[in-house]
Write a structure and sequence with these properties.
- The protein contains 26 helices and 16 strands.
- A 5-stranded antiparallel beta sheet has the order 1-2-3-4-5.
- A hairpin with a 4-residue loop joins strand 3 and strand 4.
- About 1% of the residues have low confidence.
Length: 589
């Protein structure tokens, strides 16, 4: 508690709680107060309020409240005096000389100060090497090929580490001890114990902390040296998991746009920022961490993940989504076409094309369902596999209502019509389990009667087999069915004698082979074209219902885009919706 007349009391009197809290929470003016989403519990509707006159905060949802010091203590997990110093620093209030520190504390503080100054000196050295040395000319040529001119080089403080292996060390040793240079991660030792530069023949990217001080470096090899990217090790002033590249420049744009774009690398960050989209950050050579998510969440909860679309990038995206979902972030995923990373896409397609795709980036759920569908959804076993791919993400959603909504959406998108699977999915979501548990699924209970009967007809001797096959193929009625692969094989059979299950079975996977034999053993009435037409009508109706659902989603997306250029498209979609509804109504029994 701040005692009257104390330094803490003076800070409290001079501090602006709205300004301090605003660095952690996006606040909006609401009458005489400011409101926002509570940082202490998950919520969608703002219940957190800051009173600028009384200099207090309170959440009407979870009940937390207090003064500016209490807020900083809770957010930064620090003690009272550290909170006082933090508030003073944020509000530009001069801090008096602190109590006498122990000799060890003084040494640690002096060491940190020296390391920050050493990194500033190293950054200036790398910049000079790039700008004015023969070696730097080749590095400038490489950067020019990547679309970076002198303005970009200066803006992002890029540099070059010479190939000699001792240039930086010799330069720094005039001011700093070799031991300190090694502690900074800028020098290492060979097996003989001789010190040499850590970064050699590399483009250098300075990494700054949130306040803009350079605390580490990333180096990109110019030749075939491995690793391609080399980063500073952790030091007393640099912990990888707590730093985001470009956050010092991006935090204000993130606040202004209420969104952050998350990319993988330095060049991607620079390319996006140079395209005029400054609310972009990257994790520094590590997977996204919980601390980094909390850091971003101080400025926004709306995240667009734009990692590389290759296999490693997809895996990184999925890992990041899992952490972001746990922290109740509103996430979208941008997977650029053509397998391009942001840097390559912007250089080849332009900033306008990137911005357009960014604005239409799908919600994380749509992205994940698309990834799940790649596992296959043709039969019940594949659907279970796809659902189990999605369940770890569902499990991490803290809100039970959202988990239930997820389950319904997944069932719809994966065409999970079987009640047993839908129920298993709902139970797994409600219990926050990471997998869907079902009883062993019998193939014979998966396919609908109409499609099973059509399989029988295509395997029987009748006078309309060829006509039936043409009708199915012409309208692609078999696509998406449980029996799709079986029907595809039957449709590919040459005209003539009907095929036998024994000849088709070895060509199918185990699940489909079992399903084929079960259908073959089922007894059916004498076939007729009227019955065939009845089965076809069932499939046509299914097709129309799926198209209607798709058109409805497009209408919602078009109407919600806020763009005035979608009028014609919206009108055509609504006309198509009306036509499909009429078709379904006329076909209803």
């Amino acid at each position: 508690m701040a005692e009257a007349g104390s330094f803490a009391d003076r800070v409290k009197q001079q501090a602006d709680i709205v300004r301090v809290v605003g660095e952690y929470v996006r606040l909006k003016k609401n009458g005489q107060n400011f409101t926002g989403l509570c940082p202490f519990h998950s919520e969608k509707t703002p219940s957190f309020a800051v009173h600028p006159v009384k200099q207090i905060y309170h959440c009407f949802g979870c009940g937390v409240g207090g003064d500016v010091f209490k807020f900083v203590m809770e957010m930064d997990k620090c003690d009272f005096m550290e909170a006082v110093r933090t508030v003073a620093d944020k509000c530009g209030i001069a801090i008096p000389r602190s109590r006498e520190h122990s000799p060890e504390e003084r040494r640690e503080q002096q060491q940190r100060t020296a390391l920050v100054e050493l990194h500033r000196e190293a950054a200036a050295f790398f910049a000079r090497q790039l700008e004015s040395t023969p070696e730097g000319k080749a590095a400038r040529g490489y950067l020019a090929d990547r679309g970076l001119d002198g303005e970009a080089i200066a803006r992002f403080g890029l540099g070059y580490a010479p190939a000699s292996g001792e240039a930086l060390l010799r330069h720094l040793k005039t001011k700093y001890s070799e031991k300190l240079v090694e502690l900074a991660g800028l020098a290492s030792r060979d097996p003989s114990g001789r010190a040499h530069d850590r970064f050699r023949r590399r483009i250098i990217f300075p990494i700054a902390n949130e306040s803009g001080k350079v605390v580490a470096f990333g180096g990109r090899a110019l030749g075939d040296d491995l690793p391609k990217y080399l980063n500073s090790p952790e030091t007393p002033i640099y912990i990888k998991s707590t730093v985001l590249y470009h956050l010092d420049r991006a935090k204000e744009p993130i606040r202004a746009t209420d969104a952050a774009i998350l990319v993988e690398g330095y060049m991607d960050t620079i390319a996006v920022a140079r395209a005029g989209i400054n609310n972009v950050v990257a994790s520094c050579g590590t997977s996204l961490t919980e601390v980094q998510v909390k850091l971003i969440s101080r400025f926004t909860r709306r995240i667009i993940v734009n990692y590389d679309p290759d296999t490693a990038g997809q895996a990184a995206t999925e890992r990041s989504l899992a952490i972001l979902l746990e922290h109740n972030c509103d996430v979208r995923v941008l997977a650029l076409p053509g397998g391009k990373d942001p840097d390559t896409f912007i250089r080849t397609e332009g900033a306008g094309a990137y911005r357009k795709l960014l604005e239409s980036a799908p919600a994380y759920l749509d992205y994940l369902i698309g990834r799940a569908r790649q596992l296959g959804v043709a039969n019940a076993e594949q659907k279970v596999r796809a659902m189990n791919f999605l369940m770890p993400f569902v499990q991490r959603i803290p809100n039970a209502l959202l988990r239930s909504e997820w389950a319904s959406r997944i069932a719809q998108q994966l065409r999970v019509d079987e009640p047993v699977l839908r129920e298993a999915l709902k139970r797994a979501a409600a219990d926050r389990r990471s997998e869907v548990k079902t009883q062993p699924l019998l193939a014979g209970k998966a396919a609908r009667p109409a499609e099973r009967r059509l399989v029988q007809m295509l395997m029987e001797k009748n006078d309309f087999r060829e006509r039936l096959g043409q009708e199915i193929r012409a309208h692609q009625l078999h696509v998406g069915l449980e029996t799709e692969r079986i029907l595809t094989m039957l449709l590919d059979e040459a005209p003539g004698a009907p095929p036998e299950a024994t000849s088709l079975g070895p060509k199918l996977e185990e699940y489909d082979r079992r399903l084929l034999f079960e259908i073959a053993f089922e007894s059916g009435a004498e076939t007729s074209w009227d019955e065939a037409e009845s089965c076809l009508e069932v499939l046509r109706r299914r097709k129309s219902e799926e198209e209607l659902a798709s058109v409805q989603r497009q209408i919602e997306a078009c109407a919600g885009s806020g763009s005035g250029g979608n009028g014609d498209e919206l009108r055509l979609l609504q006309e198509r919706k009306l036509e499909l509804r009429r078709r379904l109504a006329s076909a209803a029994p």
